[in-house]
Design a protein that fits this description.
This protein has 210 residues and is α/β, with parallel strands linked by helices. The chain folds into 2 domains: 52 residues, no CATH class; 143 residues, no CATH class. Helices cover 42% and strands 10% of the residues. It has a 4-stranded parallel beta sheet, covered by helices on one side. Helix 5 links the parallel strand 2 and strand 3. Helix 4 runs parallel beside helix 5. The longest helix is centred in the last third of the chain and has 25 residues.
């Protein structure tokens, strides 16, 4: 933004705020006596940038490490703490065309990590596609799994499938505290899921390593 456009922008901003500033015009010295303090604060260096400059530091974007894909809000559970408000009745899921666009991007850019989440990401019809296209180009794949999904009809294949493709499973529990996890609702869900999942993963890993 050149000086003229910048001053026009500042003038417009303060006019909309019903503050009339004579200095917010081209070629006006912002340090003159008539320049209000608010104007000076507006054009001065951002405090964060100033702190970096004070210590002779520069903030630069590093290389891409991870791509996290939220495949949708459908889930086999309904948890009050869920940050995306996922539930069995949610219909917001990526379609096939979108999934294949993401797959194409993964093939081109090859991020070190592809992190699949949801909802329950395994419910997505594109879950296996995203796993396989990512593994084919050498990406490390993470499945954020709620553990109970393998108990649902049609998902018993997951332990063997995830083991075969060497997918890292990050398993979620209802809470970070042992007391809440041991709560009446959580106990029935998490103990059974963790026990069955661990058993299934051990057998699946053994088969995959033969």
């Amino acid at each position: 933004m050149d000086g003229r456009n910048r001053n026009y922008f500042i003038q417009t901003v303060f006019r909309e705020a019903d503050v009339h500033i004579a200095s917010a015009v081209p070629n006006q010295n912002p340090n003159s006596a008539i320049a209000p303090t608010r104007y000076n604060r507006f054009v001065q260096m951002n405090p964060f940038d100033g702190k970096l400059a004070k210590h002779d530091l520069k903030l630069r974007r590093g290389g891409l490490q991870a791509l996290q894909v939220n495949v949708g809000r459908k889930c086999n559970q309904t948890c009050r703490h869920c940050h995306v408000d996922a539930a069995p009745w949610r219909k917001e899921m990526i379609d096939k065309a979108t999934a294949h666009r993401i797959g194409g991007w993964i093939q081109k850019h090859r991020p070190a990590i592809v992190d699949l989440t949801g909802g329950a990401p395994e419910i997505s019809r594109s879950f296996c596609y995203l796993v396989e296209v990512s593994r084919e180009v050498g990406c490390h794949v993470i499945d954020r799994n709620n553990l109970t999904i393998i108990e649902e009809p049609g998902f018993a294949f997951l332990p063997a499938y995830l083991a075969h493709h060497e997918v890292e499973v990050i398993a979620s529990l209802p809470c970070y505290s042992a007391e809440n996890v041991e709560g009446s609702v959580a106990r029935a869900c998490s103990r059974k899921a963790s026990r069955d999942y661990a058993s299934s993963m051990r057998s699946a890993t053994a088969r995959a390593c033969r």
